[in-house]
Amino acid sequence: FQYRRLEDVIGSSHVATEANMVSNTARLAHQCVQDRLLWMLNGSPIVTFMRRMVKTMEEDPAIAWAPTDQACGGGLKLDIDVQKFVACGSLGFQTLRNVLAAHASVVLGRKGLWACTLSYEDLKDRKSACIADLLRELGWLHLVPDPQKLGTPEGDKVFSKNAHSGGGHSRVGGSTLGGDARHLQIIKQQRHGAMPNAHLPSWQAEIVRELLAQHKPLQVMDYDLSAIDAKSKSLSATARPQLGGT
Predict the structure, then answer these.
(1) pLDDT tens digits for 36-55?
(2) How distant, in Å, are the alpha carbons of 79, 150, 188, 216 from that of 203?
(3) What are phi and psi of 35, to 5 degrees?
């Protein structure tokens, strides 16, 4: 399960963090991408943690990047400057942790860990019909008490519930309430290249894109985990017939 637009999930986490900040000073610094200055004052271990994330990607043999396929960044060496992420504070941290997650997902996917992939955008577009496809692929559809409701307006009602209403992080930018229909439409019409971020202002989104580009092999793949391996079955044939291609 992936966010096809990784920068959107980064933006989602970023605005959720801001919405739950107690300190006005921290919130202002966060909005200006200057909250790294507060880390220096309060002894935060986050910089050490960020260095460890980069070291893990570069040196951990369990997730060593060794794909040979040129479409998956074959031949490109990892050369990540952690200080560029640190300089962007919380936004840099959110970006780096998602880079690590994508890195591990691709490496493990090429080892055969993933049987199929499914994107958030497709889920929000087709809603319960997409759930039916996924359950069918997993062999679990028979466990659903009333499977004929999947793919109907009644089955789709669950997507109109606010996932944050019962606690946890809430946010002030973007939307999880049934998905941002306008943003999903933009994604369907323009599958590649720069697109508006679902949560961040354009100047912050540009920072995220520059940081994402530091992982050159993933950048070549456009951070699309469905392209990790021909042996890994994509649900594109069933879960996203309306979106056209990969």
Answers:
(1) 999 888 888 999 999 999 99
(2) 24, 40, 23, 22
(3) -70, -10
